Amino acid sequence: MMAIIYPENPNFNTNGEKHIFLKILLNLPDVWHVFYEPNINGLNPDFILFHPRYGLTVIEIKDYTKSTIQSTNPFTWKLNWQGYTKTVKSPLQQVTHYRNETYNLLAKNESLRIKEGKFKGRLKFPISCLCCFPNLSSKDLLLLNIQSLIPEKILLSKEDSVNMDSFIEKLLSSFNRLFPPKPLSEKELGDVIFSLYPSFQYYTEQTSNTYKNNPKEVLNDFVIKSFNNYVDELIYVTDSIAHYINFYQKSLEDIIIVYNPRRPSIPSSKKYLDLLIELLSSKNLSTSHNKDSKNRIRLYPYEKLTQINVNTKKVFMIDFNNIQNDVLDNIVFPLLNKSKDCHFVTLSSNDLINH
């Protein structure tokens, strides 16, 4: 059995990514989950691997050749780029940043954090990282002084990128000196996958039956993206939509944003929505309140949520913490309870949720 891939048929940006995927990642055992360019707080690391017994690994792949690299230091590298010199962040700095942002994203979900003891608040599993150079041999890495800049246990050469045993050895060694993960329930496993790939939904028959008695419990199946303020929330929503459009080559009319027309707090609903539209417009993403509009993201107030066919649309429910209780109970919760086959429902809030 092969690894579980998200999305199922990725379109790769570089030959190195495609090479590593076809030679190694696709052929990992089916206990491994492989995510290509997930959206991590607006960043897109090349790959993230997840194994419940080990944890997560963020992988950065560089197609550099010997002639590409001019000079290196721990912080920046100078590259030959189309006849010019280009200064970029070092691969180690880059993958470390991705790892930290991945931690921050997952740590927003309380179910994935240790609840008591010495390590209370920490994620239940470690996150390691790897830097891979599929065009540079071990000898090349040594001659270019890269082995002195990136720890050997997380550095993969051309040889490592074609040999499964060698790759696995490096992958597992990246977890050395990291803590062993805590056992994850099936629901927590689903929460990890959903955080990295929001198109994934995890449900059980037991929770479905429970929702008939208490519809509010449907929220147990959704990760609510929480932000300290509404600006950060709307920036995240805008970046997520732009990534979805560009990565999956979807049309704007596939996306619906559900907003709150009766915000009880500052800013007003109009100013909140105006900022969202402005941010989307800055990325050439047009919007409309008309449900029949073509090639535009459609905006719906929560009160009209029942008009949405959630089985065919990509739905962003924003400002979730400011929805009136009657709308939650009579419209939102019942609809979410029916949305088991929804391809993409993302909930976001800009304060602690009090419902």
Task: Give the secondary structure arrangement, pairings included.
Layout: E1 4-6, H1 15-23, E2 33-36, E3 47-51, E4 55-61, E5 69-72, E6 76-81, E7 84-89, H2 91-107, E8 127-132, H3 138-143, E9 155-156, H4 164-173, H5 186-196, H6 205-213, E10 224-226, H7 230-248, E11 255-259, H8 269-282, E12 287-288, E13 297-301, E14 314-317, H9 325-337, E15 344-349
Helix pairs in contact: 7-8
Summarize the structure.
The chain is α/β, with parallel strands linked by helices.
Mean pLDDT: 85
The number of domains: 2
**Main beta sheet: strand number and arrangement?**
6 strands, mixed
The strand count comes to 15
Question: How would you describe this protein?
Answer:
The chain has 355 residues and is α/β, with parallel strands linked by helices. It has helices spanning 15-23, 91-107, 138-143, 164-173, 186-196, 205-213, 230-248, 269-282, 325-337, and strands spanning 4-6, 33-36, 47-51, 55-61, 69-72, 76-81, 84-89, 127-132, 155-156, 224-226, 255-259, 287-288, 297-301, 314-317, 344-349. It has a 6-stranded mixed beta sheet. Strands 10-15-14-11-13-12 form a 6-stranded parallel beta sheet, covered by helices on one side. Helix 7 (230-248) packs parallel to helix 8. Mean pLDDT is 85; it is low at 200-212. It folds into 2 domains: 4-186; 205-349, Rossmann fold (3-Layer(aba) Sandwich). 34% of the residues are buried. 30% of the residues lie in helices and 19% in strands. It has 9 helices and 15 strands.
Q: What characteristics describe this protein?
A:
355 residues, alpha/beta, 2 domains, 6-stranded parallel beta sheet, 15 strands, globular
